[in-house]
Amino acid sequence: MDKAEKFTEEKAHHAALIGMGFGYGISPCAPLILITGYAATLPVGFAVILGAVFALAITISPVLFIILISGALAKRMNKEIPQYLTWFRLGCYVLMIVLFAAGLIKEVIE
Question: What pTM value is reported for the model?
Answer without folding.
Answer: 0.41
